[in-house]
Amino acid sequence: MLINGVKGIGAAALLSWFFYHSFWAMLPLSPIVFFSFREMEKELIRKQQQQLADQFKDAILSVAAGLQAGYSIENAFLEAGRDMERLYGADSLMAKEIRYMKKGLRNHVPLEILLVDLGRRSKEADMEDFAQVFAIAKRSGGNLNAIIRRSAAITGEKIEVKREIRTLLSSRRYEQRIMNMVPFLIMAYLQLTSKGFFDCLYFNTAGILIMTGCLALYLAAFLISRKMIEIEV
């Protein structure tokens, strides 16, 4: 949180200096600090959700393999936890979740309730869907192992497709970050090579109004570019 706060203050300071040539402008631009902080927190949460979804895909595929090997569904999940620790480390999100499941099972909490709770907390549709399918399959009986294996395969494929789409979009996000910095690089170049070029735009009413309009256009372009690459997958 501290790092995100510093980044937000840095963004406000950058805008204040380039558009108004005064750090006092950070006072009216202070909402940008809170906006930047909120957006970075959202991005961190999204990354954690993506990591959890990717690890969940490997976990349920491991569960499916355990069921084929003859494990019970509970033991298959516990064995998947060991796989997660080997693949991602003991501190990985999915390894922690399976350790939490293990404690719940020891306290006689049904596995389907633990999975539904995980899906709800993750806010990932695929994980919630898998938990619901598992709960229905366990209540209805039938060939539970076959249902879980099939559901695990489908869920794993969907999560893998989402990961591939995110990989394709990552280059667009990188390009967007570069384009966001281009106006500042141009202004910095002109200020270094042509001193006084922008002096008429600072510390006077007309210049402040013009730069405020430019800032509004920049922020609008920034938000539009973010929306263009924020594709729900």
TrEMBL record:
It comes from the Bacteria. It comes from Eisenbergiella tayi. One of its GO terms (cellular component) is plasma membrane. This is Type II secretion system protein GspF domain-containing protein. Residues 62-190 form the Type II secretion system protein GspF domain. Keywords: Cell membrane, Membrane, Transmembrane, Transmembrane helix. It holds the Pfam family T2SSF. It is a multi-pass membrane protein. It is found in: Cell membrane. The chain crosses the membrane at residues 17-37, 178-198, 204-224. Its main location: membrane.
